[in-house]
Amino acid sequence: MSWANLDGANFTGATLTGASLYRTSLRNAELSGQNLMSTDLRHANLAGANLSNASLLGAQLFGSDMTGTNLRGADMTGADVRSVLTGADLTGANLTKADLSYTKLANAKLAKAILANAAMPYTNLNAADLSGADLSGAKMLRADLRNANLSDANLTNAYMGGVNLEGANLRGADLTGANLERAPISGATWPDGRVYAAGPRGSCD
Questions:
Q1: Could you give phi then psi for residue 23, rounded to 5 degrees?
Q2: Which of 139, 141, 131, 205 has the alpha carbon at shortest distance from 168?
Q3: Strand 179-184 versus strand 200-203 pairing type
Q4: In this predicted structure, what is the pLDDT of residue 200?
Q5: How far apart, in whole angstroms, are the C-alpha atoms of residue 116 and residue 118?
């Protein structure tokens, strides 16, 4: 089905495990609960599609457009998610050890999502909702977290060197063992409620 136009298609009851959907257009498609394990979705257009509770373990999503896509509760463990997810809903999604390098997640909903040990260098999370998310051990070199909501997030042992936290809300977050070397934090609200006026912060013990 590579290169096919399947916009608005309803895949209820279909079997797509391991399928090749390379460069396929699936805008607004119904894929909720689908087993898409190891499926090739590189450069696919999934904008506005419903992938809630779908299994995307090890799926290839490099270069795909998932703008505004519903991925609530999806299992994306170990998936290659280097794509566009601007405004997507990933509430409660499992992204453990996923590759989110350079991914665009501005204004995305990631509340209570699991991003433990995920690769997130240079990821754009501007104004994203990461409240209650598990980011333990995540590698976030120079990620953009300006104005992001990280309240009550688990950031233990996360590498956040150079991460832009200007205006971010970290109230109640756990920063035990996190490394925030050279991270701009102007206007950020710290776990204890303090608001930083300006300046970088080093390692957080």
A1: 55, 25
A2: 131
A3: antiparallel
A4: 55
A5: 5
Residues 6+ apart with CB under 8 A from 7: 25, 26, 27, 28, 29
pLDDT in tens, 111-140: 999 999 999 999 999 999 999 999 999 999
Is the distance from CB of 33 to CB of 15 less than 8 angstroms?
A: no
Task: Give the three-state DSSP class for 158.
Answer: coil
How far out from the chain centre does Cα 204 lie?
Answer: 23
Q: Which long-range contacts (CB under 8 A, 24 or more apart) does 73-82 make?
A: none
Residue with the two structure tokens 């998610």: 81
Predicted pLDDT at 205: 39
- Partners of 94 in beta bridges: 75, 114
Average pLDDT in the chain: 95
Q: Which of 114, 115, 119 is nearest to 92 (CA)?
A: 114
pTM of the model: 0.93
Q: What is the full DSSP assignment across 19-32?
A: -B-TT-B-TT-B-T
Least confident of 8-17, 62-71, 95-104, 111-120: 8-17
Give yes or no for a contact between 118 and 141, defined as CB atoms under 8 angstroms apart.
no
> Measured between alpha carbons, how far is residue 139 from residues 90, 95, 120, 179 in Å?
19, 13, 5, 10
Q: Pull the structure tokens for residue 75.
A: 């299992």
